[in-house]
Write a structure and sequence with these properties.
Length: about 200
């Protein structure tokens, strides 16, 4: 067996060892002045996390590196939202989303997530940087109701029906997804300035 194959087996065992926590229903409050940054390869495997990202997750840095980012996925999140996110960033386009993440302890935290798509010298996408800030209460109150309905539809029907519901929800309000999220959750004022500067700092090659 080659060293590459052995390394692959070890990594698979490591991933399996990180069993998904049982949600506690307790929320972790994040300071609006903190930026949670992570970097994944094109397949969604974590290759970097800043100190804030690691601390909030509850995992050690060594546990996170080399592990699929979906280890942090909370069961209250509709699959349709991640489908939209991956569909967009794989095409090299940014998308903003409000996400409920699950920490190692089972506690959760709400964040507004924005991306920076990285490419190699040939222009091929090779990684994604994700930038997160705490989602304000009014944002969570609105999005939590929407996600609960979408999750219910996915449980009783499928992700396709969930996406159709989202389309109807947005159509009723006369907006597309991007406009809805921008109006609801995009950082404004001082928070917007802080978010922009932090993103520019981390985006430097």
């Amino acid at each position: 067996m080659s060293s590459v194959e052995m390394g692959s087996m070890v990594k698979k065992r490591d991933i399996q060892a990180l069993s998904r926590p049982i949600p506690t229903g307790k929320e972790i409050k994040i300071s609006s002045q903190k930026m949670l940054v992570s970097k994944t390869n094109s397949k969604g495997v974590i290759i970097y996390g800043n100190e804030n990202f690691v601390d909030i997750s509850g995992y050690s840095e060594s546990e996170l590196i080399g592990t699929p980012h979906n280890i942090l996925r909370h069961p209250d999140m509709p699959k349709a939202i991640f489908y939209l996110m991956w569909q967009r960033i794989r095409k090299g386009k940014n998308i903003m989303a409000v996400v409920k993440n699950l920490s190692k302890s089972g506690d959760h935290y709400w964040v507004t997530t924005d991306f920076d798509i990285r490419r190699d010298r040939d222009g091929k996408i090779n990684s994604y940087m994700a930038f997160r800030q705490s989602a304000p209460k009014h944002v969570v109150d609105t999005i939590e109701k929407l996600y609960a309905k979408m999750l219910e539809i996915e449980s009783e029907h499928s992700m396709d029906e969930s996406l159709e519901y989202l389309d109807g929800y947005l159509e009723e309000r006369g907006v597309d997804y991007d406009k809805f999220i921008e109006d609801l959750a995009a950082p404004k004022g001082i928070s917007a300035t802080f978010f922009k500067k932090m993103k520019e700092m981390f985006s430097r090659d």
